[in-house]
Design a protein that fits this description.
mainly alpha, Four Helix Bundle (Hemerythrin (Met), subunit A), two-stranded antiparallel ribbon, 6 helices, about 65% helix
Length: about 170
């Protein structure tokens, strides 16, 4: 498997995991579970903002963010739509990259003003791992509410996406 195809698979997994998590968050009652829903939205908005920052970094353009979250908290519906659009951007972006482009290192500025230097491949891997880490925190919020969070694991995605793998020998 090439690095590009692995990144594509991981980004597809991220898209799937986001869809599952947003669907499960619909179960939270915005009145009686307001603080938990708000905390989950803050975490998910942080993921989204970081991903948008890296969209700009990957394109070598400036972004408008001065922090890794926004002052306002979006609604669940608005955030879900924005995350879906960003997930699709990443899938389209990686589909058009050559091995040379994946390896190319880009210099950018973090929101705290420090300089960063990462390859496109490293940036894309960061997006996948960063989101997984924080989706886990949202899963803990759900578990504390006695709601089973989605099983956000790569092996589950692969076997649901390609059920013939269960029969492979």
């Amino acid at each position: 498997m090439s690095n590009a195809s692995l990144l594509t698979s991981l980004l597809q997994y991220k898209t799937w995991a986001n869809q599952e998590l947003f669907a499960e968050l619909q179960r939270l009652d915005p009145l009686t579970q307001h603080s938990e829903l708000h905390a989950a939205l803050r975490i998910l908005n942080h993921i989204y903002v970081v991903e948008r920052i890296f969209v700009a970094n990957l394109q070598g353009i400036k972004h408008s963010y001065s922090a890794t979250n926004t002052a306002e908290t979006p609604t669940l519906v608005a955030l879900q739509q924005a995350v879906q659009e960003t997930d699709h951007w990443y899938l389209d972006y990686v589909a058009g990259l050559s091995a040379e482009q994946l390896a190319e290192r880009l210099i950018f500025t973090f929101v705290d003003g420090d300089t960063g230097c990462m390859s496109r491949e490293e940036m894309l891997a960061h997006i996948v791992t960063h989101g997984g880490y924080h989706r886990g925190a949202v899963g803990r919020i759900m578990a504390q509410l006695q709601l089973a969070p989605p099983r956000d694991i790569y092996t589950r995605f692969l076997h649901e996406d390609q059920p013939q793998r269960r029969k492979a020998r």
